[in-house]
Amino acid sequence: MRSMTTLDIRRSDSIILAVESSCDETGIAVIAGGRRILSNVVASQTALHAASGGIVPEVAARAHLRWIVPVLDQALADSGVTVDDVDGVAVTHGPGLAGSLLVGINFAKTMAWVHDKPLIGVNHLEGHLYAAWLSDPGEDDRPEPVFPLVALIVSGGHTFLVEMRDHLTYRLLGQTVDDAAGEAFDKVGRLLGLSYPGGPAVARAAEAARRHDAAFPRAWLGETYDFSFSGLKTAARRTIDDARVDEGLPTGKAAASEPDARLSDGAVAELSWGFQDAVVDVLVTKTIRAAEETGARSIVLGGGVAANGALRARLAGEAEARGLPLIVPRPALCTDNGAMIGAAGARRFAAGERADLALDASPSLPLARR
Ligand code: KG4
Ligand code: ZN
Fold first, then answer.
1. Phi/psi class of residue 337: alpha, beta or left (left: φ > 0; alpha: ψ in -120 to 50)?
2. Distance (Å, rounded) from C-alpha 184 to C-alpha 180?
3. Which domains occur in the chain, in start order?
4. Ligand nearest to the CA of 302
5. pTM of the predicted protein model
6. Atom of ligand 1 nearest to the CA of 336
7. Computed from CA positions of residues 293, 299, 305, 309, in that sequence, does the dihedral angle turn out positive or negative?
8. Which residue has the higher pLDDT, 327 or 254?
């Protein structure tokens, strides 16, 4: 017998316990009916990795081990259901850091085995896509994405455009040929002397820009749907160095030994704005073109960089101008979390997919091939 919660779970709703540990967030969620978030607990390691300015894989794996049990306890307590109520355990099995993935996978396998529940393996990128289907309590009327759709997934490790004509089927339209969009944000944030991770810090700095004329190059790569951000990163380094020379500050190795010799806030704001504008321009232009050329009926945006206000606003405006609904999760559901794995896991569960105890980490698991 299922305990009833205040959310009045329908008897036909499957309840999925979902585990995400592919990178630097330990996330566990309980999802009902593939959409409704009963709980979603995330232990972030951002502060832990801030000192090194990036993720140290061994440190990340150890932190997952430290936090995974408390995160589970909190997720179950918040959800109002018990382990007995759970129909299946979903877990990210790739792509991601091998050591981090293994912590979540072994934990999920143990839960599934001890409590005799089916195990479901989920692709992390598929999770970012399925975040678009999630709804919070009281949000049952939130519109669902309509097929066929085009989805832009932009995270710290991935940047791709995919077409979905139905659930769980993906056609890759384009991807980055070098850096991911989030990676470029993080690197430019570091060059500007901003805090880790660079993405949110660059976005905050850009908001303070008074002038909006800093021009950075866009890599269009012809008519393809592919992306490239390494040239933009190099241009940003050169422009930042020029601005430092203008302000009488050291550049290159000399700058590294004088971390306090920082650019003025005004220059940081304007350069952040210019860089962000170049990234957003390319991402939005290609997404809209893909939607028009494939006859999409809706657009989905996901991944950590989808938390970026400028990207959300510009894509929303361009989609609305064409009468295309845009579905973009709230920012906390764009960055890594267990709920998105639960949404994708519920679809795989409903499709009858089951993993066995041989499920292993797949650090380079692809979502789709062209
Ligand atoms: O999806 P995610 O949480 O982890 C990966 O799967 O990679 O994405 C993290 C990335 C980082 O590069 C971070 O800087 C970026 O998302 N990010 C942002 C913002 N919030 C997070 N980038 C730009 N603007 C933001 N507001
Ligand atoms: Zn992610």
1. beta
2. 6
3. 15-143+332-350 (3.30.420.40), 149-324 (3.30.420.40)
4. 1
5. 0.93
6. 3
7. positive
8. 327
Please say whether the beta carbons of 39 and 29 come within 8 A: yes
Overall average pLDDT of the 309-330 stretch: 97
pLDDT of residue 2: 41
Residue nearest to atom 3 of ligand 1 (CA): 335
Angle at CA 349, nearest 5°, toward 363 and 3?
A: 120
Ligand 1 atom nearest to CA at 335 = 3
Which atom, in ligand 1's list, is nearest to the CA of 25?
A: 3
Q: Please give the distance, rounded to the nearest whole angstrom, from the Cα atom of residue 266 to the centre of ligand 2.
A: 31
pLDDT tens digits, 194-240: 998 999 999 999 999 999 998 899 999 999 999 999 999 999 999 99
Q: Whose CA is nearest to atom 2 of ligand 1?
A: 304
**How remote is the CA of residue 335 from the centroid of ligand 1, in Å?**
6
Residue 120, SS3? strand
Q: In this structure, what token pair is assigned to residue 3? A: 């305990």
Query: Which numbered atom of ligand 1 lies nearest the CA of 128?
Result: 1
Q: What's the pLDDT tens digit per position in 45-68?
A: 888 888 888 889 999 999 999 999
The arithmetic mean of pLDDT across residues 73-77, rounded, is 98
CA of 193 to the centre of ligand 1 (A): 18
